[in-house]
Amino acid sequence: MPSLVLLAVVGLLAQLVDGSLGMAYGVTSSTLLLAIGTNPAAASATVHLSEIGTTLASGVSHWRFGNVDWKVVLRVGVPGAIGSFLGATVLSRLSTDAAAPVMSAILLALGTYLLVRFTLFGLRKDRVGLPLRKRFLGPLGLFAGFVDATGGGGWGPVGTPALLASGRMEPRKVIGSIDTSEFLVSIAASAGFFLSLGSAGIDWKWVAALLVGGVVAAPIAAWLVRVIPPRILGSAVGGLIVVTNVRSLLHHTALGGTPAQAVVLALVAAVWAAAIVWSVRAWRREEAAETAELEAIASADEPVANAAITA
């Protein structure tokens, strides 16, 4: 029972992050399942099965808060479903010994991308409103879906930053649309795992625990996307994924279980802490700059308003 409660809490926290940042439910949940020794294919299948429910709840919540662009959902989600089905088939054919380090490496790459992206660059907002092209959304969905199934997560870490980097959609619409389209990706990935693996290795209690936690968090996350600082959250989640998967990869090398492993992990943790501090300071600078800009605009308008009243 304690393990199921822990999984439910993980599902809740992962969905809070995913629903407010547009990524990291699968990566976070898969990382935990791998850390406790789950077969990589079974871990990814478990996460994607739970995501069928969590992404549906998340999509409905985002829709009700006006965070969804349905054209983007279809244009990126359908190719994403194709890619995730192919990725599930590929992962199912790898042996457990071969798949574990491969999956950890993919998760490490995604975590590093999150950490660097949100720590150093934040979010781009200068091209909001320009149209997104099908020739961009289709290949993006296909690639993100494939990575998502093979890595146990990756739809959000690939899709959300790509759309945010384009600067053509409001951040809340990017997050809501990516979260909603993930419903299609989860169904396709689950179908791929079932055709290749059947139900072998899947613990349905784990699926239910992750699902319950995620469904509870979905509406809260859809609201939080309007108020939470994504830069700080992205750095925190990215660093957690990096530390966990560096540990997993070191376990497969000669450094596993040695003092050198502890030293490496300590250094990585120090970089993670520094990244969070950097993100907090950068966010505060951005907030101060925006406040100063608004005050300057208000000050400039005040004489005009006074003159109009006097006249």
Automatic annotation (TrEMBL):
The entry's protein name is Probable membrane transporter protein
Which membrane topology describes this protein? Answer: Multi-pass membrane protein
Give the transmembrane ranges.
Answer: 72-91, 98-116, 136-163, 183-200, 206-225, 262-280
Family note: Belongs to the 4-toluene sulfonate uptake permease (TSUP) (TC 2.A.102) family.
Which Pfam families does this chain map to? TauE (PF01925)
Q: Which controlled-vocabulary keywords does the entry list?
A: Cell membrane, Membrane, Transmembrane, Transmembrane helix
Q: Where located? A: Cell membrane; Membrane
- What InterPro entries is this protein classified in? TM_pro_TauE-like (IPR002781), TSUP/Inactive_protease-like (IPR051598)
Q: What is its main location?
A: membrane
Q: Which residues form a coiled coil?
A: none
Query: Among its keywords, does the record have Membrane?
Result: yes
Phylogenetic lineage: Bacteria, Bacillati, Actinomycetota, Actinomycetes, Micrococcales
